[in-house]
């Protein structure tokens, strides 16, 4: 029978704090059952998650990311993964920002306004069903490390994309500096040339499957 762990056991396995584990659950990054504080985790799923993310948990040690060059996977791990059925692009952007539950309410409001203002200047629909909204200026006032909040849309939306195709995947990119922002934009562009990833995005994968494919692309590149 599959071994199940409570949140304390999951934190010990991952070498992380219980509050961090709870945040990953809220942001759709960690598979679980039940509701806080009665969360339950399947050991095999946690171990797969640790492999997919590069986490190497040890009791008494802080969880860490084992890789330095997988910037895209690391940004997803710091961000969120979810799914929703917004009515338009503006609502989709608001939902994608709201997934970042560890940010203060005021910061999420300011980020949403900044991203919407950027979107009014020109569509961030990249084509192939993907949009990459982001603020015009780096988000260094709100964050210290890059984040990617992923939202899979239950119904595709018109986003005035360059190829005219509706958008089913929203990738909200937040970076603390211009150089890192440009580097991540390049990595997203490279990743989206991978047919397997594009097909995967259309299926609305869970966070583990998405991270596994992104890490594979980073290693292959």
Can you describe this structure?
The protein has helices spanning 7-14, 18-26, 43-53, 71-78, 89-98, 105-121, 178-191, 195-202, 207-220, and strands spanning 4-5, 41-42, 80-84, 125-127, 130-131, 147-157, 167-174. The protein has 2 domains: 4-53; 71-220, Mannitol-specific EII, Chain A (3-Layer(aba) Sandwich). The model is unreliable at 57-67 (pLDDT under 50). The chain is globular, with a radius of gyration of 17 Å. A 5-stranded mixed beta sheet has the order 3-6-7-5-4, with helices on both faces. The protein has a two-stranded antiparallel ribbon with strand order 1-2. It is of the alpha/beta class and 221 residues long.
Itemize the secondary structure elements and their pairings.
Elements: E1 4-5, H1 7-14, H2 18-26, E2 41-42, H3 43-53, H4 71-78, E3 80-84, H5 89-98, H6 105-121, E4 125-127, E5 130-131, E6 147-157, E7 167-174, H7 178-191, H8 195-202, H9 207-220
Parallel strand pairs: 3-6, 5-7
Antiparallel strand pairs: 1-2, 4-5, 6-7
Helix pairs in contact: 1-2, 3-9, 4-9, 5-6
Number of helices: 9
The CATH topology of the largest domain turns out to be Mannitol-specific EII, Chain A
Total E-strand runs: 7
| Main sheet overview | 5 strands, mixed
CATH class of the largest domain: Alpha Beta
Q: Low-confidence parts lasting 5 or more residues at pLDDT below 50?
A: 57-67
CATH architecture of the largest domain: 3-Layer(aba) Sandwich
Identify the CATH homologous superfamily of the largest domain.
Answer: Mannitol-specific EII, Chain A
Q: How many domains would you count in the coordinates?
A: 2
């Amino acid at each position: 029978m599959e071994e199940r762990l409570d949140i304390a056991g999951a934190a010990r396995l991952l070498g992380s704090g219980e509050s961090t584990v709870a945040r990953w659950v809220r942001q759709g990054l960690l598979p679980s059952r039940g509701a806080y504080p009665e969360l339950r985790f399947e050991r095999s799923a946690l171990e797969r998650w640790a492999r997919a993310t590069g986490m190497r948990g040890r009791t008494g040690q802080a969880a860490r990311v084992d890789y330095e060059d997988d910037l895209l996977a690391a940004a997803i791990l710091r961000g969120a993964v979810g799914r929703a059925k917004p009515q338009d692009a503006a609502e989709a952007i608001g939902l994608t920002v709201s997934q970042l539950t560890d940010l203060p309410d005021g910061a999420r409001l300011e980020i949403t306004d900044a991203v919407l203002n950027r979107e009014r200047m020109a569509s961030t629909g990249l084509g192939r069903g993907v949009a990459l909204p982001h603020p015009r200026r780096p988000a260094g006032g709100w964050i210290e490390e890059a984040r990617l909040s992923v939202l899979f849309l239950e119904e595709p939306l018109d986003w005035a994309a360059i190829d005219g195709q509706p958008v089913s995947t929203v990738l909200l990119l937040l970076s603390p500096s211009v150089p890192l922002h440009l580097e991540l934009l390049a990595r997203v562009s490279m990743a989206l040339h991978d047919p397997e990833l594009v097909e995967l995005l259309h299926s609305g994968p869970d966070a583990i499957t998405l991270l596994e494919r992104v890490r594979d692309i980073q290693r292959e590149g």
